[in-house]
């Protein structure tokens, strides 16, 4: 075995930055091991789209973002390191495991897999055709599209029950379709749904078909007890929505070839969260389990980490590794910041956000200019405020409020330009807050260099495109699926001067929603004609552009 460099070797790498991964990081880092958490989209995972968390013990009321942000701070306090990157491969053989990402390959003694799960499709006729035009999978992301319309929720579990109540904020009426004889979630939650005046429930019923022309115009349902079918059609001139909450598909593609999975594709672990291979542990929604909630994810992470601790102790002895000298935490102990105090009184950027941006900006190699085009609208005034906060964060960033009125400009717009003021092909229309702030910062980082690593073959395919392409991407700032698409589109535009990427905050561009009949985000429009829904990687987008 090659000589080990303890300065490069991690004791544990945690893949996934949701509650399970963050819990594992807290326990492992507190035990004075060197820990790296790798997350591809947003720290906090899917719980960050939950606007109200009221069943986490000891925390009477919070939201998903705030809860997981405090977890991250706690892990960081104990010394855990964090990195935003997508893992492409895991090399499991030998005592030293390798985790391959676009930012490099990292060595570790043990791995905690906390990659989570994504919404599962049912497969009814019309589901794929009308995804984004009536069929949706995230109430927080897409609920607003169905304001004043009828909505059907498919599912009888916790997610279906919780999201059906959330959708009453927007929908004229919510109808829950449950295949079983009753809800499969806790009775307390089910009772809230049954007793809600804006919700109707049909048991032992399933959807058969959904159809229409450009948007949903009808749906057919079947009562499995009686065999009868019935058809729903909205009032004339209206559409409606179908939200699918039929469980989740576990994200196990990275390790399906060398770890044992269940028939449903979930990761098999023992009582100590150990997988079928030494040095690998699982936690959270990817595991075989009866209850998928934040509290069980956190429990899994803690168990996985403590089990990995025992494994690491044995590995240190077997490999005769020197004990690490982990310095005591230098930062102040993290405290829970009240929700109304997480933002500076005067603006968008908190002191914590500025602190996190500092090491990113310090790596920049070239200057960039952010050109802010605004008019007299309220959102433009917010953009001007955002400009004043970005100014001064880095000597490599200069902000300019433009006074000219370019032909065809869609206000407001934030253009990323090089140090000489030349437009680099990507703009954000609105204030890049919420889940899109990271996407915006990464675009600046990629423009200024050194930028994120990118596969050489993908880079070659980007540069090979020799026609002018306009890509419009419509997002919601509360959507966790949008950033992956936004970052991919921006990266393609930054690497090819013939491609232009415009990102729109849906809340301020209703005309795009109407023009392209958008009822779900993220939505990508190519050359103002071809419309695609859902998150996509650089490779997936290139496949569409190369057609």
TrEMBL record:
Keyword Zinc: no
Coiled coil: none
Name this polypeptide is given: Alkyl hydroperoxide reductase protein F
UniProtKB keywords: Flavoprotein, Oxidoreductase
Residue stretches making up the Thioredoxin-like fold domain: 474-545
NCBIfam families: AhpF_homolog
InterPro entries: AhpF_homologue_put, AhpF_NTD_C, AhpF_NTD_N, FAD/NAD-bd_sf, FAD/NAD-binding_dom, Ferredoxin-NADP_redctase_2, Thioredoxin-like_fold, Thioredoxin-like_sf
GO molecular function: oxidoreductase activity
Pfam families: Pyr_redox_2, Thioredoxin_3
FAD/NAD(P)-binding domain residues: 11-301
Domain of life: Bacteria
Its EC number(s): 1.8.1.-
């Amino acid at each position: 075995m090659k000589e080990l460099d303890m300065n490069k070797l991690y004791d544990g790498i945690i893949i996934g930055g949701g509650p399970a991964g963050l819990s594992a990081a807290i326990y492992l880092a507190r035990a004075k091991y060197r820990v790296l958490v790798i997350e591809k989209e947003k720290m906090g995972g899917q719980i960050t789209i939950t606007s109200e968390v009221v069943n986490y013990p000891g925390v009477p009321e919070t939201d998903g973002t705030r809860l997981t942000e405090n977890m991250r701070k706690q892990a960081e306090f104990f010394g855990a390191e964090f990195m935003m990157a997508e893992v492409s491969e895991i090399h499991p053989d030998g005592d030293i495991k390798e985790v391959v990402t676009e930012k490099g390959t990292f060595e570790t003694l043990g791995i905690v897999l906390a990659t989570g799960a994504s919404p599962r499709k049912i497969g009814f006729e019309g589901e794929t055709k009308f995804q984004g035009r009536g069929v949706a999978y995230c109430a927080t992301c897409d609920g607003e599209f169905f304001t004043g319309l009828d909505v059907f929720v498919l599912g009888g579990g916790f997610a279906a029950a919780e999201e059906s109540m959330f959708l009453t904020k927007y929908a004229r009426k919510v109808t829950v379709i449950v295949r079983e004889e009753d809800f499969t979630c806790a009775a307390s939650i089910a009772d809230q749904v049954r007793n809600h005046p804006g919700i109707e429930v049909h048991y032992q019923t399933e959807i058969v078909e959904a159809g229409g022309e450009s948007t949903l115009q009808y749906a057919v349902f079947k009562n499995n007890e009686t065999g009868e079918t019935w058809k729903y059609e909205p009032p004339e001139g209206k559409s409606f929505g179908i939200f699918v909450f039929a469980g989740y598909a576990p994200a196990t593609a990275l390790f399906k070839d060398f770890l044992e999975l269940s028939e449903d594709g979930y990761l098999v672990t023992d009582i100590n969260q150990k997988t079928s291979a030494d040095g690998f542990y699982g936690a959270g929604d990817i595991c075989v389990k009866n209850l998928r909630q934040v509290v069980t994810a956190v429990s899994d992470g803690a168990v996985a980490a403590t089990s990995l601790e025992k494994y690491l102790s044995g590995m240190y002895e077997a490999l005769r590794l020197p004990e690490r000298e982990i310095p005591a935490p230098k930062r102040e102990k993290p405290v829970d910041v009240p929700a109304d105090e997480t933002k500076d009184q005067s603006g968008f950027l908190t002191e914590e956000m500025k602190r996190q941006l500092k090491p990113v900006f310090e790596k920049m190699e070239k200057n960039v200019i952010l050109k802010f085009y605004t008019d007299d609208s309220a959102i433009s005034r917010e953009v001007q405020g955002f400009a004043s906060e970005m100014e001064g964060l880095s000597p490599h960033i200069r902000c300019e409020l433009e006074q000219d009125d370019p032909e065809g400009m869609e206000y407001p717009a934030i253009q990323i330009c090089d140090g000489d003021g030349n437009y680099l092909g990507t703009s954000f229309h609105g204030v890049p807050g919420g889940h899109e702030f990271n996407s915006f910062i990464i675009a600046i980082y990629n423009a200024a260099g050194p930028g994120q690593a990118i596969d050489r073959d993908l880079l070659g395919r980007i540069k090979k495109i020799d026609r002018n392409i306009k890509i419009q991407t419509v997002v919601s700032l509360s959507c966790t699926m949008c950033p992956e698409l936004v970052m991919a589109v921006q990266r393609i535009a930054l690497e090819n001067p013939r491609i232009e990427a415009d990102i729109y905050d849906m809340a301020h561009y209703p005309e795009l929603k109407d023009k392209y009949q958008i009822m779900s985000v993220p939505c990508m429009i190519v050359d103002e004609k071809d419309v695609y829904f859902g998150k996509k990687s650089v490779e997936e987008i290139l496949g569409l552009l190369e057609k």
